[in-house]
Every structure is written in structure tokens, then in C-alpha cells.
Amino acid sequence: LTRLLGARPGVLAVMGLEAAALGECEITRLLQDKLQYEMRLQYMKHYFPLDYTVQVQYEEVLRPSNITRLRNGTVSEAALRYLWFHVSSQALLRIRQVLPEKHPSWKYTQELCRLFDALGREYGAYRQTDVDVVVADLVAQVHSAGTERRGKAVRPKALLDNCLKVMQMLFSQPCECRGP
């Protein structure tokens, strides 16, 4: 993930900007296409054993209700998108950690990782000191993961379901994302 954070500064104006950058919108549209229900169902449920879960930290599960709570706490939309990026890319890495290269879902998750790499380049201008304190703390917790801190078993499909739902919440207005 350090690759994702250190790339191409200056692409996105820092925190005062509430609208999403053009590159950010295009990448999230591509992500939305890759996260279609049928694909999530096939690659994240059918290709895994029944009731299979991935161990994650509590902070690595970002639901729409979390976003609503943070919005009510006056966290900026740009900071929420920054948080979504970090939590979602970390969740994707957790899924990839359990997949052998020959797993049928490997290529699918690799394509998602490429899109998150591209999105990471868009977020290269952000520094944790520029975002709301609440978001900076959550991002730090997500990236300070040791196995001793993991505390939740989540199905891979549920992680990607949350990724898509939150993405649609955060990007629907600035990017005019399509519905589910």
C-alpha cells in the first residue's frame, strides 16, 4: 500500500475540494463495473467454501451507517472518500492474502487491485495531516494492523458489498455514479 500512497502528488487538490477529480470518477466507474453483483457473487462467494470468512480489524469494515455518522460529525466528503479508499484497499488486500495464485478469484482481485493502485495515484496529494483528525486516526488504525488487533470475521463478499455501497454513497453526487 505504500506504493498507493506515495504516487504522483498534485493530482488532486488538498482537502478544501469537495468535488471528486475527473480521474477519481472514471476509476470509481470502472470499479463499479467490476463490483457488479454477479461478479461479487461468483468470485467472492461461489468460489469460496461455504461460510468462509477473512479476519479483519473492526476499523476495516466500513458500512454506509459509518459514513452517515461521520457526515453528521461534519467530516468533509473528500476526507470520507480518502477513508473509503484506505479501508477498501486494505479489505481487498486481506482477501488477497488468503488466495493462492491458482484460485479462480485471483485474477479478479488482481484487476481490482490495479484499479485501487490507479485510485491511489489520485490520492497521492493527500497527507494524513490534511484530513479530519477522526479520519486520520481511522486510517492510521487500519494501517497499523498486527494480527493481535484483528477482531472480526467477515465474508469476502460482504467486504466488497460494503466497498460498493459506500462508494456509491460517496461518489454518486460528484461523479453521478449509476445505481446498483
UniProtKB/TrEMBL annotation:
Matches recorded under Pfam families: IL34
Name of the coding gene: Il34
GO annotation (BP), single: positive regulation of monocyte differentiation
Top-level taxon of origin: Eukaryota
Phylogenetic lineage: Eukaryota, Metazoa, Chordata, Craniata, Vertebrata
Entry's Gene Ontology molecular function annotations: macrophage colony-stimulating factor receptor binding
Organism of this sequence: Crypturellus soui
Protein name per its UniProtKB record: IL34 protein
One cellular component (GO) term of this entry: extracellular space
InterPro entries per the UniProt record, alphabetical: IL-34, IL-34_sf
